[in-house]
Write a structure and sequence with these properties.
Elements (H helix, E strand, L loop, with lengths): L6 E8 L8 H11 E10 L7 H10 L2 E4 L16
Parallel strand pairs: 1-2, 2-3
InterPro entries: NYN
Protein name: NYN domain-containing protein
Pfam families: NYN (PF01936)
């Protein structure tokens, strides 16, 4: 017996290290496999380079979550703990 059950999916985005230009493709992929019930984009929203995320987030119902940068020029990729 085949069912059309879709999964409940959380979409959590690192806005500092991902491009908003890919969000449309990501959401298309997610919609084929499940329902995005949690949609969040994490980033330091005080930084100008993240301004492009704001429109994209609104179009897809994402919540913007402030994740402050504590060290200048450091991202999780370049931190000593990665």
């Amino acid at each position: 017996m085949k069912t059309d059950m879709k999964y409940a999916v959380a979409v959590l985005v690192d806005g500092d290290n991902a491009s908003f230009e890919n969000l449309e493709d990501v959401m298309g992929f997610v919609s084929r496999h499940g329902n995005a019930i949690i949609r969040r984009i994490y980033g330091d929203w005080t930084r100008k380079p993240l301004s492009g995320w704001k429109d994209a987030a609104g179009e897809h119902g994402f919540r913007l979550v402030q994740a402050s940068s504590f060290a200048s020029g450091k991202t999780p990729r370049t931190s000593p703990w990665s």
